[in-house]
């Protein structure tokens, strides 16, 4: 991959993307995994189209945003030019944003309570659109963080299916910032395995290689691609 942008403003991201790609490839090789088993989600939150377009032009098609409103403001114009863009919502979701979220996103990583399940089920049916759904696990049981407690995960995943008729693809976690992430990745993988879920959204700029070693199928990488926020 070559960097075709010489200017200081847009020159950073394509090189950084190539470096992230190389690290993913290396982690996959170390883990004896197929590169195709890991999806790189380029987290573009806070960055505008001028920063995003060079990354699209470098070949990246899967992007993540953490706010419905922000995504709604910048992505429709981009997806009309690049229709093969895939958008993931990785941030917390409010029930009153479920309609917009289902309309805009191809995947939602933050399913974590009955009110969200109910709102998503309603919108999935009325829009006949089926974003891939991940249940967020609060592996560190941090009070300020979204996600379902590990001890309640099995029952919640069952109720997503049985009560709300949702198809859950996998689990997502955000480990506590002040702890080594490996135990949190391993716990998330274990909960997924015993619930028959095959997708694991885990790993960010600082730890995505580690997450790949522990089974991540989706890594969410922001600052390593776009720079400091
Ligand atoms: C911002 C964000 C990321 C990306 O974080 P970086 O450290 O910039 O890679 C990943 N996941 C979630 C849920 C985020 O909000």
From TrEMBL:
UniProt organism field: Bradyrhizobium amphicarpaeae
Keyword Signal: no
One Pfam match: Ala_racemase_N
Function: Pyridoxal 5'-phosphate (PLP)-binding protein, which is involved in PLP homeostasis.
Cofactor requirements of the protein: pyridoxal 5'-phosphate
Chain positions found as N6-(pyridoxal phosphate)lysine: 45
Lineage: Bacteria, Pseudomonadati, Pseudomonadota, Alphaproteobacteria, Hyphomicrobiales
Superkingdom of the organism of origin: Bacteria
Alanine racemase N-terminal domain sequence ranges: 26-228
InterPro entries: Ala_racemase_N, PLP-binding_barrel, PyrdxlP_homeostasis
Keywords: Pyridoxal phosphate
GO molecular function: pyridoxal phosphate binding
Protein name: Pyridoxal phosphate homeostasis protein
Keyword Protein biosynthesis belongs to the record: no
CDD domains associated with the record: PLPDE_III_YBL036c_like (cd00635)
Family: Belongs to the pyridoxal phosphate-binding protein YggS/PROSC family.
